[in-house]
Amino acid sequence: MANENARKTLPGWLLLVASVAVMLAVTMRARRPSPDSGGSLGQHPSIGKAAQDFELEFPPGTKTSLSKLRGKAILLNFWASWCEPCMEEMPSLAKLEKELAGKPFLLLALNADDEKPGVHGITAGQGVPQNLIYDFARTSLNTYEVDSIPLSVLIDRKGIIREVFLGPRDWTDAATLGAIRAAID
Question: Distance between CA atoms of 34 and 32, rounded to whole angstroms?
């Protein structure tokens, strides 16, 4: 009898699981950058809009806000220490910082972990960007629609979002570097 009941409910469960899988596939396809976009989410709804302000704290305790950094192009890179693709792109982000040293550009690597600096032995200068930000308004994760990481938001010197990049990349390749230089100029 129990086996017969299990057979009756199995098709219902399979239908539910299949429906959820289809919804996830459609959602992920909608968020995936096109192959010719260089990983840019050119259709992202925030592109062309003013960057939303939020509070953050530079180690060792200097508090500021995104709006106070206006006048520099800013790359917000949302990452986490448990995210393998995030960690793989860290050396490339550090190279980007060196490439643009002396320019009005600031890279903010915003850690989405709940843990504080040093927990995973990650410190600036070890193949990672200088500005590892652990203390920031977590509401910015929602504001910038961070639903997968790594996700990076390029903001121009006037505070307008110019690009949104999903996934890891070589931050010094010609196309990506060109987009960043355009935000600086």
Answer: 6
The distance in angstroms from the start CA to the end CA of the chain is: 73
How is 30-58 classified by DSSP, letter by letter? Answer: HHSPPGGGTTB-TT-TTTTSBPPP-EEEE
Helix (H, G, I), strand (E, B) or coil at 176: helix
Alpha helices in the chain (DSSP H): 2-31, 84-99, 139-143, 174-184
pTM of the model: 0.72
Residue spans of the domains in the chain: they are 1-31, 36-184
Which mean pLDDT values do the consecutive 10-residue runs of the chain (185 residues) have?
A: 53 47 35 41 77 84 89 94 90 93 93 62 60 73 85 96 94 94 95
Cα atoms in the Cβ-side hemisphere of radius 13 Å centred on 161: 24
Cis peptide bond prior to 150, omega within 30° of 0? yes
What DSSP character marks residue 121? Answer: S
The SS3 of residue 111 is strand
The dotted CATH code for 36-184 is 3.40.30.10
